[in-house]
Every structure is written in structure tokens, then in C-alpha cells.
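User: What would this chain look like folded?
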Amino acid sequence: MDAQSQVVGRLRSVFLTGVTLPEQFRQAQLNKLMALIKENEQRILDALHKDLAKPKFEAVLSEIDIAINELHFAISNLSSWMKPEYVGKNLATKLDECFVRREPLGVVLIIGAWNYPLQLILNPLIGAIAAGNCAVIKPSEVSPATESLLVELIPKYLSQDCYAVVQGGPEETQALLKNRFDHIFYTGSQKVARVIMQAASVHLTPVTLELGGKSPCMIFGGVNIRAAVHRLAWAKFFNAGQSCVAPDYVLCSPATRDAMLPELKVTLEEFYTKNPQASPDFCRIVSPRHWSRLMELLKRSNGKVIVGGESDEEDKYIAPTVVVDVDEDDALMQEEIFGPILPIVTVDSVEKGIEFLNAREKPLALYVFSDDSSLVNKVLESTSSGGFCSNDGIIHSGLPSFPFGGVGASGLGSYHGRWGFETFSHRKACMLRGWALERLNGLRYPPYQENKLSWLRWTTSPKNCSVM
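Assistant: Here's the prediction, encoded as C-alpha cells.
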């Protein structure tokens, strides 16, 4: 605790010097972060493979390139993001300079997750750097190879005066949370998020919580079954299902389910061969504890395994698995699966599907597969979710111009691109006024009179407000 307090105190002292404020400093740090990734790509790939057996294809796509794209976006747009935002004025403020200024919050804490252990640290860090903050960075101890690499590389590339990496498990994290931060950014489970919110409340610290939940995939109306199954299977079994935006379950009619099942079998063989355990393109579960949790869910399920079901504890392997005859009270429907198990739940109509969704917590993502645009729009307008994508899965999360975040139980706040910059910034309302028109200002001074009030109400009316 004392060592952590010293780190936080040191960063706060540095922040107060103003060293992180100039755009030149921020740009330099972002470019150094870019160099960190590009100069150590193979070491990053090795660490990700050691932690999760990530194939290079998936690691490049979802860890390396997503961070590089985020960096390019921030570097290209930072100058415009930092400019004052001038606002509309009424008659009473016509001669004043009125603008919103983005200023850094101070010393922020970023707690990463194990499923994408590189990008879930770097992407929020990009926002924090772009906004001009100092940061304490806490990688996940559940992915130890990537954690160790970040502990080594970040101090080599970024300013050690402004950014610090700390290691440890739950006890060390709880001790870290006793310090006062100006913002806490957490990616992970709802259970830990509650602990973080309680700790943050002591210091009235604002939080961003990137959580998850059971993101559904609705399939209704006419649809190209082969294309739909390919996109669904890729999104679900990417990273062995260990993605917060992975389709958690399918909601469809019995007829659609029957049409999908043969195609799912064929598709999974195409993707991972008849022996997925031997495929170099299929990840592993991150730890024995997570493997056991998934196998217990599958054991408790009353559904019928149609595809997969095989497992190997020593290898932390669970085959791509599809389960049917799953009802809403099934064990697989009680919590986020976060693994390569896909339950299929049937309902008679899209209206019943919408009722099913709205009776549950709001998910981080909602997917709708259909050729009928009116049906897609109906689901879009009748439901609430962190993000929404039709006829595909998870790819919306990689677009830096989109806000990424949940709603309700799936999260609080958002980031990526400009949204990350805004998350780590305070928007200060600034009015610069001189000494002119003091007679007009006299209308507000006592003794109060009805005619003064009438004039003031007229000068401050929204009807007389200019729009920028």
C-alpha cells in the first residue's frame, strides 16, 4: 500500500507541473506507444500465444491492429479534439467569448482484462494520454505472459514520470483502489465492477466500467443460412468465445434452428477441421479455473449437445460446442458464458424474441440477422443495448469512430477514438468577458424591479440564443 501510494503521489506531483498538457508531449507519447507495438510485434504474439494459444491471425486482428488503428486515429485527430468548442450565446452574453475547454482529469487508473490483454490496456491508455493525463496501469494477472511484457516495455517507451505499471492479483488491486484517483477505467466482470464502484465512492471518483453480459443474436425472417452461420460461428468462436461482445446465445424460430444445425456442423469443420484441438486456429481457455467454470455450466445444462462437447482439462481445451433445447431457466442462460459454448433458444416470433430480450439485463451488444430491414429496425427501436449490429458479429467494436461501451448492467461510459479522449477529459465551460455594457449588467443588481426582471428575461431567452 505504501509503495502504491508513493507511485500515485509521484504521478500527481508530476501532473501538477503541467508537463502532460502540451499537444507536443501527448503526440510524442502516442508515437512512442506506436513504436512499442511495431518494434515488439513478435514478442507480443508470443506472449498472447502463451497465455491463450491465440493464433497470429486473431492476435494481429484483435490486439495489435486494433491498437495501431486507434493510435493512428488519435494522432491524426488530437489537434482538433484539443481546440476550444465555441457555443451559442444569448443577448446578455453577446460580447463574451464562450467556449468549452477539454482539460485532463489528472491521475487515472486503468485496470485491464485477460481476454484481450494487450488492447484492453492500450486502447484506454491511448485515450488517457491523448487527454493529457498521468496513468497507473494494472494489467491482468490472469494472462501473465502479456502482463510481464507490458511491465517491461511500457517504462522503456513511455515517460516513467507520467505512467507507471503495477502488478498483482485481487489483494494488490484492492489495496491500489484505496488510493485517490481522478478516474478509474475498468474492463471485466460485474462482480469486480461492484467492488470498484464501492472503492471509488470513498473518494467520489468517476468510473468507466466496460463489462459484458449475455449478448444475443436474433435470427428471424429470410436469411442466407450459410452466410449467417459463417458470420455467427466466426464471431462466437473467435478467441474461443472469450470476448465480451461475442454472441452469447442464439434466439430464433424452431424452423430456423433446424435449418442452421447442419450448416453449423459443416462450418465448424471447415473452420477448425474434424479435430479442433489440433487446429492452430482455435484458442484455449485462459486458466484451469475458467475451464472448470465452463464445464460446470455445460454439466448443469438440460440442453442437448449437437456439436462438440469434447474437452481436455490439461490442455484447457473445450471444443466449439452447440447446445439445443435450451430454455430460459437453463444453467447456460443464467450468466455470461464467455467460452466456446453456443446455446440456441427458440421462440415463435420476433415479437416474442423482443419480449424475451427486454425481460433481461441490457446486453453489451445485440445482433440481428435478417434480410428484412423493417424487422431489423423494429428490433433496433424496441430494445436497448450497448451496441447493435445487423447481419454480422463483433466487428462494430473495432471501429474507432464508434463509442464502445455498455448500458445498465453491461457497463457505464464509453471509449475508443474521440470517445476515449472525452472519457478522460473534463469539459470546462469558459466565459471570458470584459468590462463593457456595465449599464446592462446593472439590470441584475438590487434594488430589484419588475421592469428590470422583464428586460433580463428577454436578454437571456433561448429565443435570442445564437447557434454555433
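The CA atoms of residues 139 and 150 lie 8 Å apart. If you want, I can go into more detail on any region.
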